[in-house]
From TrEMBL:
Domain ABC transporter: 4-235
Coiled coil feature spans: none
InterPro entries reported for this sequence: AAA+_ATPase (IPR003593), ABC_transporter-like_ATP-bd (IPR003439), ABC_transporter-like_CS (IPR017871), ABC_transporter_ATP-bind (IPR050166), P-loop_NTPase (IPR027417)
Annotated organism of origin: Sporolactobacillus spathodeae
Domain of life: Bacteria
Keywords: ATP-binding, Nucleotide-binding, Transport
Name of this chain's protein: ABC-type nitrate/sulfonate/bicarbonate transport system ATPase subunit
Length: 267
């Protein structure tokens, strides 16, 4: 049984009294512990898909299940981290990362006791009492991820979390995320516009078409783990990059993917 299943989900919006299709029917089955990336042109519906999975928007048709249980239109089942860290400027880093625990009814004292070891282990030790404006962009994103992990959802959605970071910090955060993912065994769906990032992080990559979004291809990333910077220089990495660049080029022919579980190519 797939941990997360998106079954024939589409999304229409009203625009000038006309139904506007943002996402064509999509089917994805994500196994427990997988790292899945989604790439595609801007405005192709990737964030809309995430909002449907998170229960922030209801699909116009179709169903979403988690471990076999329907969650369509329900919030609170998955973790969700955006490009903006959304840290509250008036709260310390420690009190920012415990927000989800407090919302669930845990006392601030107990929540802090749970959070402090994670801050110390994952690079924010000594910054617990600082406010967000004292931290670099990478450190703020670390705080955002720790907050998401403390919420303890098995499935985590990442919507371009490193998009605003410089190249060096971005690579550091990618390596840090892989370390966290390996330790916590979470199921991850990751939206990015960066092909290198998608290949470096993922087990599989879904390629979306331009609006209205649909799945064009599913690509297996058959690179050994653990990965490091030398992985990006391997011949297979460069081959995957060429394939994905061609798929994203609307002017070139590409293998079609019908939304079922078959791969788009033999890769």
């Amino acid at each position: 049984m797939s941990e997360l299943a998106i079954n024939h989900c589409s999304k229409y919006f009203k625009k000038d009294a006309i139904n506007f299709c943002a996402v064509q029917p999509i089917t994805m089955h994500v196994e427990s512990g997988q790292f899945i990336s989604i790439i595609g042109p801007s405005g192709c519906g990737k964030s809309t898909l995430f909002n449907m999975i998170a229960g922030l928007e209801r699909p116009s048709e179709g169903e979403i299940t988690l471990s076999g249980m329907p969650i369509t239109g329900e919030t609170g089942h998955v973790g969700y981290m955006l490009q903006k860290d959304l840290l509250l400027p008036w709260r310390t880093i420690l009190d920012n990362v415990i927000i989800a625990l407090e919302i669930r009814g845990m006392s601030r004292k107990e929540a802090r006791q749970r959070a402090i070891p994670m801050l110390q282990k994952y690079g924010l030790g000594g910054f617990e009492r600082d406010h967000p404006d004292a931290l670099s962009g990478g450190m703020r994103q670390r705080a955002g991820l720790i907050r998401t992990l403390l919420d303890d959802k098995q499935v985590i959605l990442f919507d371009e979390p490193f998009g605003a970071l410089d190249a060096q910090t971005r690579l550091q955060m990618q390596n840090w995320l892989l370390k966290i993912w390996n330790e916590f065994k979470k199921t991850v769906l990751f939206v990015t516009h960066d092909i290198d990032e998608a290949i470096y992080l993922s087990d599989e990559i879904y390629v979306f078409t331009k609006r209205p979004g649909r799945i064009k291809a599913k690509v297996q990333v058959d690179l050994a783990r653990p990965r490091n910077e030398t992985t990006m220089m391997e011949a297979r990495f460069l081959q995957l990059k060429r394939e994905l660049l061609l798929m994203l080029n609307e002017e070139r022919p590409h293998p079609e993917f019908d939304g079922n579980e078959g791969d788009a190519h033999g890769g």
